Amino acid sequence: TSLVALSLSAVTEVWADVMRATGAAERVFELVDREPAIPAGGERLASVKGHVEFRAVRFSYPTRPDVPVLQGLDLELRPGEVVAVVGPSGAGKSTLASLLSRFYDPQGGAVALDGHPLTTLEPEWLRRNIGMVAQEPQLFSCSIADNIRYAKPDATDAQVEEAARAANAHDFIQRFPEAYGTQVGERGVQLSGGQKQRVAIARAVLKDPRLLILDEATSALDAESEHLVKDALERLMKGRTTLIIAHRLSTVANVDRVLVLEGGRIVQSGTHASLMSQEGLYRRLVERQFVAA
Ligand code: ATP
């Protein structure tokens, strides 16, 4: 089936599954063991400024109610601010992204967009306002053009190409004999990690959301791809509230603010420079994880 033929809600469902399935292999079982869905319906805001607030958020995954993941977490993202979250593995960084996209609701406290608790907002509408660039973006088995178009099925070819150019993807796409018509996925060409990321960035450009979530790749891209991805991301983030799940020193050094997550709470917050000037988890993480890696 053509991707554009899928209804938006079906795409959202697939995306929810992809979100839940990424990460640890055991999480894939959730595709079989489905959790109760977030109820549909709710308010749509006429416009989005992009102010995000987590207030005293307590959260455990429904499949593991005895394991507290977030324990009274507070965080604020001001409109247009680029904030990176760092922390040890399992600290809950990806969980923040899942709660912001409302794939789950917290058991305590609230997550709010422009002052409206997410539980009062329509989930589909919310997700249309959030762009996501995953570590390993999932491409569908269809053409590159339809992969870019999936969040905006009525986009013209010219709009798709414009988005691809902004994402530094146009040149590599043009080099395929069938260009934008090139089939990707299982029965098509295999794209490199950096190329997949640029397709995902093109999707986000076309979607033009107020909020962005970037899950930075942990595995290294080749130098050329790395540069093109970084350049495209910088353009994409401009003017959008951005939450980056960061793994690289070069990223955290350039953001407005870094949040350090540990034990289900934000334990440090500040610029890279200010956090480096004090004793604490951040400096230890940078010294061990980033520099040693
Ligand atoms: P990493 O850097 O390793 O990706 P993280 O900081 O993003 O880690 P999360 O993926 O948010 O951490 O996980 C936080 C905790 O919640 C971990 O203990 C993890 O095992 C658990 N967890 C994550 N996803 C699920 C899930 N879908 N079901 C149950 N437990 C989960």
UniProtKB/TrEMBL annotation:
<protein>
    <submittedName>
        <fullName>ATP-binding cassette domain-containing protein</fullName>
    </submittedName>
</protein>
<feature type="domain" description="ABC transporter">
    <location>
        <begin position="52"/>
        <end position="288"/>
    </location>
</feature>
